Amino acid sequence: MLFYHLAETVSMESPPKGRPPSTLTQDAERNKLLAEMAEQSTDMISRHTPDDWRFIYASPAVENLLGYTVDEIVGVSAYELYHPDDVEDFKRRAPSVSYERGTYTHTYRFRCKDGHYTWLESTSRSLRDPETGELKEMLVVSRDASRRINAEMTNRRLAKVLESSSDLVAFVDLDERVSNLNEAARVRLETGESNSAILLADLFFSESDQRMIQEAMAKAREIGDWQGEVDMCTMSGDKIPVILEVQAHRTYDDRIEYFSIVARDMSLQKAIEAERQQYQDEVSRASRIMTMGEMASGLAHELNQPLTAIVNYVSGIERRLNKQDQIETAILKKPLKKISATALRAGEIIHRMMDFARKGQPQRKAIELSQLVDDVIGFCADNASRQQVRIENRIQYPELQVEADRIQLEQVLLNLFLNAIEATSQSVKGEPEVIWVDVAEAEHQQVIIRVHDQGPGLPVSDDSQLFEQFFTTKEHGLGMGLAISRSLIEAHGGHLWAENASEGGAVFSFSLNRSEGGGR
Ligand code: ADP
Question: Which of 368, 373, 400 is nearest to 520 (CA)?
Fold first, then answer.
């Protein structure tokens, strides 16, 4: 019966009139063959009425494709099963399917028996009565297109995400020509719409960046990908700092087909970071100058002493000259030597002050901790003795080295010492009080440096308050010293905290990285 339907359909295309009987037999054979092929095809072959596209025939593949049996689908209008969104579109196209010669292929959604829609790709052809030219029916071959459509949809979505990503994305050919750029890359690199003549190397700033991308490509060829920081450049020559990922993409037979480059523009972060660093440097310098202000009288005293000594030596020489016209040069040698040594010492004090107030890039290197603590103790010794306080270095490891910027470390210690001196001077016991520095063991290659005092202890129970900017309990305090000290220590990868000692007084501790190969 079904064979008959299809055979009938095809026969309408080949006019039987006036043909010799042998040709008719051949036609019948061919039709039978076609009918058999239709029955076995995994594509669904169907015939429809030309007006409302009712199924006149469907091959058994309908069951696999749509879930209906042949008997269920025959008699149903295809319009009932189109996706509502496609119906209009379909109706609009229908005339061209019906009345044009040849075939027409389109893709649309069709409702399966279980209610879900599947994508079909159908090729339709009109069949006419050869005698009258009247449109008789439509012959359609349909196949499942859902996999292709879904893959296309996924690709379209991925392409859209890539195109609208804020990262700069480029595809690069094997000869290192840029074949595609997404919108962010076109805009940021100022390439305009055409990528034609762009060589990968042209997108990188300096010669060393260009060398780096060559190495990156070589690494990607070798191990699949490369990540790193590098500077790209716009067509007008501006620098763009980026974090870059290069990936080599391979074919199924493992040949590299192309490279992808994804660059995250770090300009904004770098600018913020630079601004933050500059701010910190400024604040830190201001704080050093403030600290110097606090110590000015002590420093004046320190300078006064060598200057007075020099004046004394010179007056001694003058006195001798006044007494006798002739003087042996050997007698002058000793005082002159002393004058020069003392002047050098005064010069050193001035240099130390200038160093401390200097504005410069922090430089981290291995520093002998105990030596530096001695220096800072010397720096504020006058201040301490005026307050009847002594600072002791109780670090037992003279060769212990830490990795730090000398000036910043001096600044932190100075802040802690000056606070400790101030706190300790408040406790009136009559005898000189002691502040001491020692180091404790720490994990992960770090050391903990502690400043102990004999003051009243912390003014608040929550020590984090002390480190807030502008927190102060002093009448003329600024409340910046501890905040700056903490940020300096954290910039070194350490921590700074405070606690009360069980025997009274406060302990301020901070951790620093031990320098490799240095002591202990
Ligand atoms: P400032 O010294 O200008 O007040 P800091 O940030 O150095 O600013 O200190 C903040 C506050 O922490 C001080 O006002 C004081 O209350 C407290 N503090 C700091 N060091 C000590 C200490 N050794 N003992 C007790 N309190 C301290």
Answer: 400
* Ligand 1 touching residue 481 (CB < 6 A): yes
Report the SS3 class of residue 446.
strand
pLDDT in tens, 284-308: 777 777 777 766 655 666 677 778 8
256 - beta bridge partners?
250
Whether the pTM exceeds 0.85: the reply is: no
391 in the same domain as 501: yes
Q: What's the 163 CA to ligand 1 centre distance in angstroms?
A: 55
Pair 226, 116 in one domain: no
- Within this chain, do residues 175 and 114 fall inside the same structural domain, yes or no? no
The bridge status of strand 401-405 relative to strand 168-172 is unpaired
Report the distance separating Cα 216 and Cα 203, nearest Å.
14
pLDDT digits (tens, 9 = 90+) for 439-465: 987 666 899 999 999 999 999 988 889
Residues 191 and 42 in one domain: no
Question: What would you report as the CA-atom Rg of the chain, rounded to the nearest whole angstrom?
Answer: 45
Q: Is 504 in the pocket of ligand 1 (CB under 6 A)?
A: no
Nearest CA to 409 out of 292, 512, 278 is that of: 512
Instruction: Please report, for the domain that includes residue 441, its CATH number.
Output: 3.30.565.10
Annotate 96-132 with three-state secondary structure.
HHHHCCCEEEEEEEEECCCCCEEEEEEEEEEEECCCC
Residue 424: both structure tokens together: 């300790």
- Owner of token pair 């196949």: 143
On whether residue 63 sits in a domain, the answer given is yes
Structural domains of the chain, count:
3
**Is the shortest distance between the CB of 423 and ligand 1 below 6 Å?**
yes
Three-state secondary-structure class, residue 278: helix
Same domain, yes or no: 169 and 140: no
Region of 176 on the Ramachandran plot (φ > 0 left; ψ -120 to 50 alpha; else beta): left
What angle is formed at CA 399 by the lines to CA 358 and CA 285, rounded to 5 degrees? 15
- Confidence class of residue 14 from pLDDT cuts 50, 70 and 90? very low
